[in-house]
Design a protein that fits this description.
Helices cover 38% and strands 18% of the residues. It has twelve helices and twelve strands. It has helices spanning 20-30, 44-52, 69-75, 81-86, 106-117, 135-146, 159-169, 181-185, 229-237, 245-250, 253-260, 268-278; strands spanning 6-12, 35-41, 61-64, 78-79, 91-94, 100-103, 127-131, 151-155, 173-176, 190-193, 217-220, 241-242. The chain has a six-stranded mixed sheet with strand order 2-1-3-5-6-4, with helices on both faces. The chain has a six-stranded parallel sheet with strand order 9-8-7-10-11-12, sandwiched between helices. Helix 1 links the parallel strand 1 (6-12) and strand 2 (35-41). Helix 2 (44-52) packs parallel to helix 3 (69-75) and helix 5 (106-117) packs across helix 6 (135-146). The longest helix is centred in the middle third of the chain and has 12 residues, at 106-117. It starts with 5 loop residues before the first strand and ends with a helix. The chain binds NADP nicotinamide-adenine-dinucleotide phosphate.
Length: 282
């Protein structure tokens, strides 16, 4: 009798760029699991049907990337709190009754990265400043509130988008335009860049950290380059820093555990493997 090979996949349009097969392939091999993790291009028009029929595609679950995350959430029979809050799902699985379930693990990826590389970072539950108000920022605001941060300031070029997030997340969140940055920096315990500024090929993130309290942790979720100008400036000032690659790796953990039954570890070897594949040299 042949063993049942469980199969999962990253789905989206396009999916050629996704590093998920590399990450899950590494864990499958590390744990000696006879499983598969594929790359399946699913156009938005076909996405709802595809997710509703995961089993007939031979899948026990899937990751979902742009532009299908909202469609995937709508196709689900059940969503966890994160996916419900985001209105978007990046991790799907079938439960024991065959229901299609969805989660959004970006916020967990953010938390997992800081928990691993800056243990105790959330102990003081102070004030955080999130730069940017896109999809990643929403997940991170949710994550910070889940760790009981007292105040979360969202600063964005388009202030309206920051306000939309803060309206949704309530009285501990505060929306600002970019001009407020200088004043706000003086009173934060955590600074997170979630804009695409500073990424290879994008405009630089022009920011003066001299006002930032020395104890404040600085995290950039941009991981190409790995050590962004923001992180370099923070290090020169003596602020603790955490880079962004770990968020990408940690967001993959819950899916692997659901599909293959083992909670995998984010190791230095995995970091090095993914960075090498991205052409990012440390
Ligand atoms: P998004 O929804 O497109 O949001 C982009 C954000 O960047 C918006 O706040 C946008 O401001 C801001 N921005 C872009 N160009 C700008 C400029 N010239 N000046 C000022 N602000 C600018 O993207 P996202 O999905 O949130 O992702 C944002 C970044 O995080 C990307 O670099 C992505 O690669 C990275 N990311 C990393 C991880 C990880 O695992 N480490 C996970 C998710 C995302 P406006 O609203 O004013 O346009």
């Amino acid at each position: 009798m042949s063993a049942v090979v469980k199969k999962a996949a990253v789905t989206g349009h396009p999916v050629a760029h996704s590093r998920s097969p590399l990450i899950h392939g590494y864990w499958l091999e590390q744990h000696g699991i006879l499983g598969e993790y594929a790359r399946i291009d699913v156009a938005p028009a076909a996405a709802s049907d595809f997710y509703r029929n995961l089993r007939s595609a031979g899948l026990v679950g899937a990751n979902v990337t742009v532009p299908n995350k909202e469609i995937a959430a709508s196709a689900c029979d059940w969503l966890d709190e994160t996916a419900r809050t985001m209105g978007a799902a990046n991790t799907l699985w079938l439960d024991e009754t065959g229901r299609l379930c969805g989660a959004n693990t970006d916020g967990m990826g953010f938390l997992g990265n800081l928990d691993q590389l800056a243990p105790g970072w959330d102990r003081s539950q102070g004030t955080a400043l999130v730069l940017g108000a896109g999809g990643a920022a929403r997940a991170i605001v949710w994550a910070l509130l889940s760790r009981n941060f007292t105040a979360v300031h969202v600063v964005n070029r388009t202030e309206e988008k920051a306000r939309k997030i803060c309206d949704e997340f309530g009285s501990k969140t505060f929306a600002h335009g970019w001009e407020s940055l200088g004043t706000l920096l003086g009173k934060v315990d955590l600074l997170v860049n979630t804009t695409s500024l500073g990424m290879t090929g994008k405009q630089p993130l022009e920011i003066d950290l001299s006002n930032l309290p020395r104890h404040a942790l600085v995290n950039d979720i941009v991981y190409s380059p790995l050590e962004t100008e923001l992180l370099k400036q923070a290090e020169v000032q003596g602020n603790p820093t955490v880079d962004g690659i770990g968020m990408l790796l940690h967001q993959a953990v819950p899916g692997f555990e659901r599909w293959f039954g083992v909670r995998p570890e984010v190791t230095d070897d995995l970091r090095a493997l993914v960075l090498k594949d991205l052409g990012v040299f440390v």
